[in-house]
Amino acid sequence: MIELTGVSKSFVLHNQGSAVIPVMAGAELRVAAGDCVALTGASGAGKSTLMRMIYGNYRANAGRIMVGGTDVAKAAPREIIALRREVLGYVSQFLRVVPRVATLEVVAEPLLALGVPEDQARARAAELLARLNIPERLWSLSPTTFSGGEQQRVNIARGFAHDYPALLLDEPTASLDPTNRAVVLGLIEAAKARGAAIIGIFHDAEARAQVCDREEDVSAFTPQAAA
Ligand SMILES: Nc1ncnc2c1ncn2[C@@H]1O[C@H](COP(=O)(O)OP(=O)(O)OP(=O)(O)O)[C@@H](O)[C@H]1O
């Protein structure tokens, strides 16, 4: 489902004399449907960079990044937008939303974008918010003023609203209490059971051990190590 071959990335710091910083060379990764792979490696090893390249936020300098039938490394912006709508979900660490949009709408939005009827989309959003213990009195409010953990749960509800065939999870349990952490791990397990291919960054080692089938240490792809 997700397959990376020979992926390299350098950053060019235009505001610092165009210094070139190579951060990744020859990255290889394969994640089958139903598998969860954890990206590991020390801080600065390139976990987030790799995830951002798969999501199409950073452009790879070389290599192939196949997600379903799309090569993200070469795809046009329009193809990446379609991929994100239909195939590839992403739960980032922090919620970024348009101000003044109600929480229920924020969570239902990925389904509405796919053409799911409004009542069905809202019912699914309500089910996820309830499961993630977001009190119903908050559903009509914008999540911008919510606590860190509440925002993270809204973000997770939104990321799991549609049954994406592939999912990227950046620290999905970072600011959660044990009860909600268990709910999120349950959602991840259910996504795997229905055949989602998942890549995650989990600093929570126990969570990683519970839901991930294997670990991929991205330090193996730092340019020095590859040389
Ligand atoms: N936009 C950018 N411009 C320049 N350098 C960047 C950029 N994004 C990441 N880097 C560099 O790439 C390297 C890898 O960073 P990245 O955030 O991917 O590491 P990480 O493994 O996710 O670290 P952490 O566990 O601390 O989040 C770092 O040296 C970082 O400074």
TrEMBL record:
<keyword id="KW-0067">ATP-binding</keyword>
<dbReference type="InterPro" id="IPR003593">
    <property type="entry name" value="AAA+_ATPase"/>
</dbReference>
<dbReference type="InterPro" id="IPR015854">
    <property type="entry name" value="ABC_transpr_LolD-like"/>
</dbReference>
<feature type="domain" description="ABC transporter">
    <location>
        <begin position="2"/>
        <end position="226"/>
    </location>
</feature>
<protein>
    <submittedName>
        <fullName>Phosphonate C-P lyase system protein PhnL</fullName>
    </submittedName>
</protein>
<dbReference type="GO" id="GO:0022857">
    <property type="term" value="F:transmembrane transporter activity"/>
</dbReference>
<dbReference type="GO" id="GO:0016829">
    <property type="term" value="F:lyase activity"/>
</dbReference>
<keyword id="KW-0456">Lyase</keyword>
<dbReference type="GO" id="GO:0005524">
    <property type="term" value="F:ATP binding"/>
</dbReference>
<dbReference type="Pfam" id="PF00005">
    <property type="entry name" value="ABC_tran"/>
</dbReference>
<dbReference type="InterPro" id="IPR003439">
    <property type="entry name" value="ABC_transporter-like_ATP-bd"/>
</dbReference>
<dbReference type="GO" id="GO:0016887">
    <property type="term" value="F:ATP hydrolysis activity"/>
</dbReference>
<dbReference type="InterPro" id="IPR012701">
    <property type="entry name" value="CP_lyase_PhnL"/>
</dbReference>
<dbReference type="InterPro" id="IPR017871">
    <property type="entry name" value="ABC_transporter-like_CS"/>
</dbReference>
<dbReference type="GO" id="GO:0005886">
    <property type="term" value="C:plasma membrane"/>
</dbReference>
<dbReference type="InterPro" id="IPR027417">
    <property type="entry name" value="P-loop_NTPase"/>
</dbReference>
<keyword id="KW-0547">Nucleotide-binding</keyword>
